[in-house]
Amino acid sequence: MKKIASVLSLCALVLGLSACNTVQGFGKDVQSGGQAAGQAIEKVAK
User: Which UniProt key words apply to this protein (predicted)?
Assistant: First the structure.
């Protein structure tokens, strides 16, 4: 079970990283993800 989870996690990581062409692009993706999470938390808190 752990082996399958590890393989799936690795595949998700590779696909996620391949979606960004540069390190700068990866940073923008992380930033936008953080902003979306922050907005969702704010909506729940209200």
Answer: Lipoprotein
All structural domains of the chain with their residue ranges: 2-45
Residue 19: both structure tokens together: 């979606």
* Contacts of 26 by beta carbon, 8 Å cutoff, 6+ apart: 17, 20
Q: Spell out the SS3 assignment of 1-46.
A: CHHHHHHHHHHHHHHHHHCCCCHHHHHHHHHHHHHHHHHHHHHHHC
